[in-house]
Amino acid sequence: MSQVATECCRRQCYFNGRVQGVGFRYTTRNIAINYDVCGFVRNLNDGRVELVAEGPPTEVEHFIDSVVDRMRSYIQNMDTREGPASGEYSQFIISR
């Protein structure tokens, strides 16, 4: 197993609330610049926002905490799933 796969984790978050049309994706991407994470953020058709972040566990945790802190007034609920990193992402992007 590669060193990257053993040192990195994946967290997939689904945010509910007034999370579309408020700059959530752009804010998330701008926050990601400050952390060693890659993945994506995108709007879903059901009104939620999906965020997938991969990287060192502490970086991913601090990144998501920063997103929640910054966007707290728009988030009603967050569902999270964790797993091993896929290694498929090379940067953090806004996905369409």
Attribute tags:
single chain, 96 residues, alpha+beta, 5-stranded mixed sheet, 3 helices, 30% helix, disordered N terminus
Polypeptide structure, described:
With 96 residues, the protein is α+β, with helices and mostly antiparallel strands. Helix 2 packs antiparallel against helix 3. The longest helix has 15 residues. The N and C termini lie far apart (32 Å). The N terminus is likely disordered.
**Major sheet: arrangement of strands:** 4-1-3-2-5
> What is the string of helix and strand elements?
HEHEEHEE
Quote the average pLDDT.
Answer: 93
Number of helical regions: 3
Q: What is the rounded distance between the termini?
A: 32 Å
Largest sheet: 5 strands, mixed
State the share of residues found in helices, binned by percent: 25-40%
Rg for CA atoms: 13 Å
Strand residue percentage: 35-45%
Question: What's the short story on this structure?
Answer:
The chain has 96 residues and is an alpha+beta fold. The chain has 3 helices and 5 strands. The chain has a 5-stranded mixed sheet with strand order 4-1-3-2-5.
